[in-house]
Amino acid sequence: xxxxxxxxxxxxxxxxxxxxxxxxxxxxxxxxxxxxxxxxxxxxxxxxxxxxxxxxxxxxxxxxxxxxxxxxxxxxxxxxxxxxxxxxxxxxxxxxxxxxxxxxxxxxxxxxxxxxxxxxxxxxxxxxxxxxxxxxxxxxxxxxxxxxxxxxxxxxxxxxxxxxxxxxxxxxxxxxxxxxxxxxxxxxxxxxxxxxxxxxxxxxxxxxxxxxxxxxxxxxxxxxxxxxxxxxxxxxxxxxxxxxxxxxxxxxxxxxxxxxxxxxxxxxxxxxxxxxxxxxxxxxxxxxxxxxxxxxxxxxxxxxxxxxxxxxxxxxxxxxxxxxxxxxxxxxxxxxxxxxxxxxxxxxxxxxxxxxxxxxxxxxxxxxxxxxxxxxxxxxxxxxxxxxxxxxxxxxxxxxxxxx
Length: 404
Ligand code: FEO
Description:
The chain is an alpha/beta fold. It has helices at residues 55-63, 81-84, 87-94, 103-113, 182-197, 201-213, 233-244, 262-276, 291-299, 317-329, 348-358, 376-396, 399-402, and strands at residues 4-7, 10-12, 15-17, 22-23, 26-27, 32-34, 37-40, 44-47, 73-75, 98-101, 120-122, 128-130, 135-140, 150-154, 159-163, 220-223, 249-257, 280-285, 301-308, 310-311, 314-315, 335-342, 362-363, 368-371. It has a 7-stranded mixed beta sheet. Strands 17, 18, 19, 22, 23 and 24 form a 6-stranded parallel beta sheet that branches. The protein starts with a strand and ends with a helix. Residues 78, 80, 82-83, 145-146, 164, 224-225 line the site of MU-OXO-diiron (FEO).
């Protein structure tokens, strides 16, 4: 794809990855983008590069505007290799006067590429880089997404180059939020938040507060993945505020894996009880629902009900996978319960319950276990569990946060 001017003298020069389907465990059925930005002023600066297999796309895109060897400064906002993978080739080709990064960024670049000889200039929060008419101000954003991460702000354009923050994994030929369906865009942004940033929610809150303290005016947010926010930059900041507070609504996720459909039938009965109790619900079978899509649904859910058949004295592998993944992302403030069928030993419900307790999920009861196939009275117990979970949610959610 060719360059796109996003502000006068500022160009998107990234790459589209239409075919990636797994991003370190996160499903990307619609691909992603690696965004890089070129600022052409009295000095010329490139903000970030792209994943290494796309280095030619980057160079060709830049070449449509200027000779890449004219670039004076390379700003490395983030060292994860989807953004820094082309840095060695770029430095070799362009020989920039400075490679600008955070203190942790310099360490990470040397750890990755073993090039202590590059012309580093280390910057900290509040430090600036004059490009002529425009000035970049740097804002360290440690752990959003790595310790080295930072954002760059160009005050003259009210432009925040936000690295991983505010991104989406969605490959599109359009570059701006107002060129795509807004609800689909926010769905991708929510999935990205739930699977990449949820664990760092307290830091997201601090970042939003810091941006407020610094009095930064934002007219456009240009992330390193997905669409650029030019119509609704404040909308995505507000969404980050809500997601980072882990505000939930009257909604439950029932997620399970099943062996011979007994646990699946139990899930359906639990959902019936949730509905009777006044909750919206999602019923997700792990044979067809990816862990990262489950996490997206968990993001705004007040309750989580997890089911597993017992296999070899344990839980189903897909349930163990989900619990391990979810634990790392640290959802907070949920109520929940476990359920599942078994044949003779039946450990899965206890093990799932323990894993949920470990995540500080407030368990409602000891869960429901059913031997082999559920009878009517077993399904009635499942419906009742759904009702109890719904009641616990209604007790937990105040009218203000539930939108009543
Ligand atoms: Fe898009 Fe943390 O890299």
